[in-house]
Amino acid sequence: MVKTLPKVEIEELKPGIKAPAKETLLTPRFYITDFDAVANMDISLQDEELQAMLTEMRNDYNRRHFVRDDEFKQSWDHIEENKRRVFIDFLERSCTSEFSGFLLFKELSRRIKNRNPILAEIFELMARDEARHAGFLNKAMSDFQISLDLGYLTKNRTYTFFKPEWIIYAVYLSEKIGYWRYITIYRHLEKHPEYQYYPLFRMFESWCQDENRHGDIFNALLRSQKSMWNTWKGRLWGRFFLLTVFATHTLTVHERSDFYDTIGLDAKEFDRIVIRNTNETSARAFPEILNTDHPEFFTRLERCSDYNLKISEIENTNQPKWLKFLRKLPYHISIFGNLLRLYLIKPIDAEALRGTVR
Ligand SMILES: [Fe+2]
Ligand SMILES: [Fe+2]
């Protein structure tokens, strides 16, 4: 018999449906883009690669992977309240970002269907994967008697407009960083099964291969657009997205160090491993990557995270808005200053490495 869980205090939209987390600069975004420009994109430079990726996607290697087997069918009462709260937060964040991918890919596929059939099918198949991922995470949430209303999210979230080139840089990175996050957690728990308190984590090995394939598709898209890697503008944009994605990662991982504690991972170490690997992988796609070995690289990123935690602390007080603003201002300026210094660290020329990395 299924027992009723002692409830974790969670703000609800209606019974059993979680009110979505407040949108901030650090929460997963929902995107729209210039669909006509994508439909007209000349992808001939990477035609072969994209055809090969399409065949891979049609093979649907994970079609039988996302099944809730017997291990899921049990009571989770034994997971204590705080652990459950941070885990639900992890599930919500992951589900939202998977769902954001689904919406973008689905819409891209629908809008370019008659004009760019190859890309349309690739996006359709990526949407299939992301729907599975989001659905699986939402089902996991329901084991804790809460779930997300994805229809409500679709209608009520703010959508950010990104030019197709920005979408390609940003989605490439989010797929590859997603891959490294999932595989790092999986490998860690393989060595330390005592921290595997819920069966979701053991699904990550095949799951992350979906993200890896999605990343490879965006790799081909990026390389199909010469302006994205063969111009000084492309170099600057590439670096900008690398730094933005890494800084967001550091800030969110440190903000949620409680969750990483529950699975026996040190947040700082996890963040560094994921960033180093994602940066290295990006050398296959981006014209330049960041120098993560520079002595100031992680020091400055982590300093930004410390300031971000101070900002949250101030935000959570009952002080008047104007006072909070004034108290937060120096931290915002310092974060900006540190990010600027990070941006100016001499990057590594990935084009020069091309041929040796692959
Ligand atoms: Fe995914
Ligand atoms: Fe993905």
Protein described:
It comes from Gloeothece verrucosa (strain PCC 7822). One of its GO terms (molecular function) is iron ion binding. The longest helix has 32 residues, at 81-112. The chain has 358 residues and is mainly alpha-helical. The protein is 63% helix and 4% strand. A hairpin with a 2-residue loop joins strand 1 and strand 2. The protein has 13 helices and six strands. The protein has a domain at 30-61 and 79-286: Ribonucleotide Reductase, subunit A, CATH 1.10.620. The radius of gyration is 21 Å and the shape is globular. The mean pLDDT is 94. One fe (ii) ion binds next to helix 3, helix 4 and helix 7.
The secondary-structure class comes to: mainly alpha
Helix content: 55-70%
What's the CATH C level of one domain?
A: Mainly Alpha
CATH fold field value of one domain? Ribonucleotide Reductase, subunit A
Approximate strand percentage: under 5%
Query: How many strands, what sense, and barrel or not for the largest sheet?
Result: 2 strands, antiparallel
The strand order across the widest sheet is: 1-2
Give the overall silhouette.
globular
Distance between the termini: 53 Å
Mean pLDDT: 94
Q: Quick summary of this structure?
A:
The protein has about 350 residues and is mainly alpha-helical. The protein has helices at about 35-40, 45-60, 80-110, 115-140, 150-155, 165-190, 205-225, 230-255, 255-260, 265-280, 295-315, 320-345, 350-355, and strands spanning about 10-15, 15-20, 30, 160, 290, 350.
